[in-house]
Amino acid sequence: MDDDDVESFDAVIQCNECAEMTSHWLLVAPRVIPCKRWNDAWRAANGSIFGMFGDDCVFRASGWDEMVEHAFARYPDGIALVYGPDGFRNQAHASHPFLSRQWTDALGGATVEFFSQDWNDTWMNYLGDAVGRRHYIPELRIQHLHPDDPSLGVPEDDTYRQNRERCVRDRNAERYASTEMQQLREQDVARLRAVMR
After folding, report:
1. Is residue 20 part of a domain?
2. Is residue 182 helix, strand or coil?
3. Arithmetic mean of pLDDT, 118-139
4. Cα–Cα distance measured from residue 155 to residue 158, given in angstroms and rounded to the nearest whole number
5. Are 142 and 64 spatial neighbours (Cβ–Cβ below 8 Å)?
6. Does the structure show a pLDDT above 70 at 90?
């Protein structure tokens, strides 16, 4: 959680159930790009499944954790990218997937840090497709409250505006398409295939 997000911090502090969740912890720090924060959390975690989510995601499916565990159980090697409809891109793109410990250990982290904003989800989708392990669960509804979807009525706040500007300024789309990044993606594909059975 960003250290300037007073409203969310207060909500967590006031949540009685949160105090009882010994398997969860809250990282409060200055705002950085999500991929860096996800990797910070991955390094501190000891679980077998990681969710790549932000504060703009709302879990709408009851029993979502069991659905995710059941999906990963289908792959004895644990290599899969598991996701459900987000109400925005749905089956076409896993913007906030679950990854296994085996996946993240094979790649040395939860996600790449090559881009100042966005594109790491596109990277993960590419890997999932390349190894044939993008696993979509239609009932796993986790809504992505993104301002790019006008039907949601979500206003674009400073965080979204700064993220969009940074993505354009740093030419992340061009960087993703570069020969260097294509080669690095193929190396990641090879790392995943090396641990697949």
Report:
1. no
2. helix
3. 96
4. 10
5. yes
6. yes
The pLDDT assigned to 7 comes to: 65
Range of the domain at 64: 49-195
Count the domains in the chain: 1
The whole-angstrom separation of Cα 52 and Cα 44 is: 14
User: Of 99, 50, 53, nearest to 78 (Cα)?
Assistant: 99
Is residue 187 scored above 70 in pLDDT? Answer: yes
Q: Is residue 117 part of a domain?
A: yes
Hey, is 13 helix, strand or coil? helix
Which 3-state string (H, E, C) describes 89-141?
CHHHCCCCCEEEHHHHHHHCCCCCCCCCCCCHHHHHHHHHHHCCCEEECCCCC
Residue 10 inside a domain? The answer is: no
108 occurs within a structural domain: yes
